[in-house]
Design a protein that fits this description.
It is built from 14 helices and ten strands. The protein is globular, with a radius of gyration of 22 Å. The C terminus is likely disordered.
């Protein structure tokens, strides 16, 4: 193991200038969650092909770490990696399932003491139990796997737990629901850092949806249509091809060859959203893409995305992201004279 875990003299992380991500794993690690983090952040590249993140896995004591499967893994880095990290992600462990205390264990407390002030901190699945035990979620909105919601509430009554969403973000602290929602959260953080184009590229490589809103229900009672029934997929595809024009619920229902009542019910069963909620989110995503990747004036973007007017676009973008189109565009493209079109 000594040869395998040989580290560079410069420290746990190199001096590449890339954003440093440390993943804290524990005994009983869920391997899929560790893989998700490395897949998402490890594959993120700029338009010039430059790697944007450096990802390091660490644990309390370097060496063999048991997983919740029939294999173990070797982790070469100890908690010193946390001290150099700009983002820290805590993944789930089967130890979380039997947690009976709201306090941090000795090694966990010592590890968290190493995390620098200002670092972005996130959890996947029941890793939220660790963030809550560290006091990072008190008074904040958070989520975890829906099956552990009751246990979580008993241990951490001061946390605003929402078990019906895929992920949450509250003042630099992020949480996600089950394993797959970890990918949604990683894509969300990468999208915040580098824009939709980078996040969408990772989604395409991983063959996952590029964007599922944090507000989308994590548990849908009937996610698959009953045998002999059709889905709303055709209507959704048609809507995406016609986002720039006004769309009614009746038109969407016609594309699925359903009554409005049946379509509305089926849509909620499949996506956990109403058709109009889903349509608004797609329009916001189209506007974000155009703001990031084009120099079109805001009035034109509002029209192409189906909002009709710049005022409507501003209203929806602010409700979703808390910023104006101009501020959003400046973040990813920089200020330019043609931005005065939004004045």
């Amino acid at each position: 193991m000594a040869k395998l875990c040989k580290t560079l003299a410069m420290g746990v992380f190199g001096n590449s200038g890339r954003h440093r991500v440390a993943v804290l794993v524990r005994q009983g690690q869920l391997p899929i969650e560790l893989g998700i983090v490395h897949q998402a952040f490890g594959d993120a590249e700029s338009s010039e092909g430059k790697r944007l993140y450096e990802v390091v896995t660490c644990t309390f004591t370097p060496g063999e770490v048991r997983t919740n499967t029939d294999f173990s893994m070797i982790v070469c880095h100890g908690p010193e990696a946390l001290a150099e990290a700009e983002t820290v992600i805590v993944t789930a462990s089967d130890e979380d399932y039997d947690r009976r205390t709201s306090d941090l264990d000795g090694p966990l407390a010592e590890a968290f003491d190493r995390i620098p002030a200002g670092a972005r901190i996130a959890s996947i699945c029941t890793g939220a139990f660790v963030l809550a035990a560290a006091g990072l979620l008190d008074g904040r909105r958070a989520t975890t796997h829906w099956r552990r919601a009751g246990q979580f509430r008993e241990l951490f009554p001061d946390v605003d737990l929402d078990p019906d969403v895929l992920y949450t973000e509250d003042e630099g602290v992020f949480t996600s629901a089950g394993c797959a929602a970890g990918m949604d959260l990683c894509l969300h953080m990468i999208r915040n850092d580098h824009g939709a184009a980078v996040a969408n590229d990772i989604a395409r490589r991983s063959v996952v949806p590029p964007h599922r809103e944090g507000g989308q229900a994590q548990f849908i009672q009937r996610p698959v249509p009953e045998a002999g029934t059709s889905s709303t997929g055709a209507a959704r595809r048609w809507a995406l091809e016609h986002l720039g024009r006004p769309l009614t619920l009746g038109e969407l229902a016609d594309q699925a060859s359903m009554s409005v009542r049946t379509f509305n019910r089926r849509f909620r069963e499949e996506l956990g959203l109403t058709p109009m909620q889903w349509l608004t989110r797609q329009r916001v995503e189209r506007a974000r893409q155009l703001l990031e990747e084009t120099e079109l004036p805001v009035d034109r973007i509002a029209s192409d995305a189906g909002f009709g007017t710049a005022a409507s676009l501003r209203q929806h973008l602010h409700a979703t992201l808390g910023v104006s189109p101009r501020a959003y565009r400046n973040t990813f493209r920089g200020a330019s004279d043609w931005l005065t079109a939004e004045a």
